[in-house]
Specification:
267 residues; alpha+beta; outer membrane lipoprotein receptor (LolB), chain A; twelve-stranded mixed sheet; signal; GLPGLI family protein; GLPGLI
Amino acid sequence: MQKLFFIFLCFVSFSATAQKDNAKIYKFTYQLVYQSDSTDVYSKQVEDMLLFTNSKESAFLSKNGFERDSIIQELKNNPELAANGINASMFPKTRFNYKIIKHYGKDDFVYYDKIFKDYFMYKESKKSIPWKITTETKTINGFKCQKATTSYAGRDYTAWFSNEIPITDGPYKFYGLPGLIVKISDAKEHYVFELKKKATVAKMPSVVDNSKPIYEVTRATFREKMNEYKENAVERISQSGFTLNDEYKAQVRAKLKKRNNPIELSN
């Protein structure tokens, strides 16, 4: 009887801690190391990504993209700032324009992205990423973690999650483990996300600009449109009113050719 009472007290204590944590709004900063050219190991680059979470939802996006959007919004709210002149160096650059919103009470998440000048979104089931949890553990950046594996969109992944942070979430689309994903990488280590910072913020940011038309499509349709753009990028840019010389066209094609290793390789 005493043992059962002790277990009950532990459960109540854990539940209270989880509820207290859920009342907070967290900002997790992940470092993403990625290889944009599958044929060139020296093409690896680094970019910070942000995961905002509260008790209802999370938002995952590029840190530079978040800061860029914040500057743009500030200029919209204060036109006098724009009148003083805008320097291109003010806007942080990012290779990742996507934003992923996960609603904790729903069975799917929403993926937003931009292709040239058009904005798209699609919904995807959280069950599209099935996990296998192992008993292997190790400490990463001060957190005791447990190993899990999965396969998604043509890549095999190893994840390390920690129930010391009782949030069922992680970077990119990865979701559903009994603790926050501290590190996840594909088998070739072409994409490696690792948690570097944990902080709290005053409010959940709004990261999707609904003032612009957003076309709802399927994931397959979005991938088709992205591939079509990459194949015809020079033509699309020219059609938008820009005059491109042959040298610039060659540079655009060369850059796109080297960006041959997206995080999602297949449907």
